[in-house]
Amino acid sequence: MTKSKIDLSAAPNAAFQIKAESGPSEPIKKTEQAPEEKKSDKPNLADAYVEKPRLNPEMIGKSLLDRMPQPTGWRLLVLPYQGQGKTAGGIFLPSETIEKSQVSTQVGYVLKVGPLAYADKEKFPSGPWCEAKQWVLFARYAGPRFQIDGGEVRILNDDEILSTILDPEDIHQLT
User: Fold this and answer.
1) Nearest CA among 76, 75, 57 for reference residue 133
2) Are 83 and 101 in contact (CB under 8 A)?
3) Which of 155, 157, 159, 156 lies closest to 122 in space, CA to CA?
4) How many domains are contained in the chain?
5) Other Cβ atoms within 10 Å of 82 Cβ, number
6) Which of 41, 47, 112, 128 could pair with 77 as two cysteines, CB 3.0-4.6 Å apart?
7) Is residue 29 situated within a structural domain?
8) CA angle, 65 as apex, 105 and 68 as ends, to 5°?
9) Domain of residue 109, CATH code
10) CA–CA separation, 73 vs 126, rounded Å?
């Protein structure tokens, strides 16, 4: 076993230097990254955001959409809108603020619609309230949330949609 001494003569902010009494040690070899640490070539949901965290729905590739959960029954798969990363005055928002607004968001993009959504003619006599690839407004904490490929998605019931909207920036949420 090699005994080591720590040289504390350096300035307080300097890194510690370890001197071995038995002579020089072997150089540290760089290990290869584990396979799970390497960047995946598969597209993920985070890649669909143009200016992080602004979503560009057209950038959601077909293979990525196919890999997302298929809602069953009368449910919809919705991607919550994350909002701008900075204010109108140019101040960048901290990530905690962006995450908090994402959890309490009321706006989302419909990714998939379940096979029985809006099929009940008594409940929806005028037809579907929304369809895939539409921006919608829903209750603040509606539906379960879960992470998938770098983004959060929600599964909502078909009757939890409050309205359709053209631009998610038009809706200003109350905090």
Assistant:
1) 57
2) yes
3) 159
4) 1
5) 20
6) 112
7) no
8) 70
9) 2.30.33.40
10) 19
Does the model's pTM come out above 0.70? no
Q: Dig out the tokens for 124 from the structure.
A: 């929806």
Three-state DSSP state, 112:
strand
Instruction: Note the pLDDT tens digit of each residue in 19-35.
Output: 444 455 555 554 454 44
Structure tokens at 119: 């099929």
Structure tokens belonging to residue 50:
């143009």
Torsion of CA 99, 104, 110, 111, to 10 degrees: 40
Both tokens of 35, joined, read: 């396979």
The boundaries of the domain holding residue 164 are 45-170
CB within 8 Å of 39: residues ≥ 6 apart: none
- And the tokens for 19? 């001197």
